[in-house]
Specification:
This protein is flat. By secondary structure, the protein is an alpha+beta fold. Helix content is 38%, strand content 28%. The chain contains 3 helices and 5 strands, in the order H-E-H-E-E-E-E-H. The chain folds into 2 domains: 43 residues; 82 residues, OB fold (Dihydrolipoamide Acetyltransferase, E2P), CATH 2.40.50. A 5-stranded mixed beta barrel has the order 1-2-3-5-4. Strand 4 and strand 5 form a beta hairpin.
């Protein structure tokens, strides 16, 4: 056999082993995530709160209790997380918000939030509707494409 064929076979075998390993690791992570979601759903409760501020900040700088920061993996302590500072009853608390609903949380408004511990999983407006996030501005490329399509008489691509 030629050396090129041997090298290609070795690379192919390594790739197959990597794909199989990633498959099993993904299955394990999926089961773990399902268990965690089950626990969050079991502990959730609805709370009325006044949202004071919201930011994406590093876990170390977020102002969360030291016990929470100690329990997180070391790699995640430097990652930015969505943090909401809210007044729940007479107490001002720092909470972690779900990434999916972070943009829907209105600032300086009273909301009914679904909370599980210090984790906010859902938000509904208490007085009126919660405002959706403002639409992003179109980039230079998108604006240029749209104007060129208008000049050419074509329908704009959405």
């Amino acid at each position: 056999m030629r050396p090129l064929t041997i090298v290609l076979l070795v690379v192919l075998v390594v790739l197959i082993v990597a794909v199989v390993a990633l498959y099993f690791i993904g299955k394990k992570a999926e089961k773990k995530q399902a268990e965690q979601q089950e626990q969050i759903d079991a502990m959730k409760q609805t709370v009325s709160m006044l949202v004071i501020d919201k930011k994406r900040m590093k876990l170390k700088e977020s102002g969360l209790p030291a016990m929470v920061i100690e329990q997180t993996p070391k790699l995640m302590r430097g990652a930015k997380v969505p943090v909401v500072k809210a007044k729940v009853g007479p107490q001002i608390m720092t909470m972690i918000c779900d990434e999916k609903i972070f943009d829907q949380v209105p600032v300086k408004k009273e909301v009914k939030a679904t909370v599980s511990g210090i984790y906010i999983t859902g938000v509904k407006g208490l007085h009126g509707q919660t405002q959706a996030a403002p639409k992003k501005k179109k980039g230079f490329f998108a604006r240029t494409m749209e104007s060129l399509q208008e000049k050419a008489g074509a329908k704009p691509v959405k």
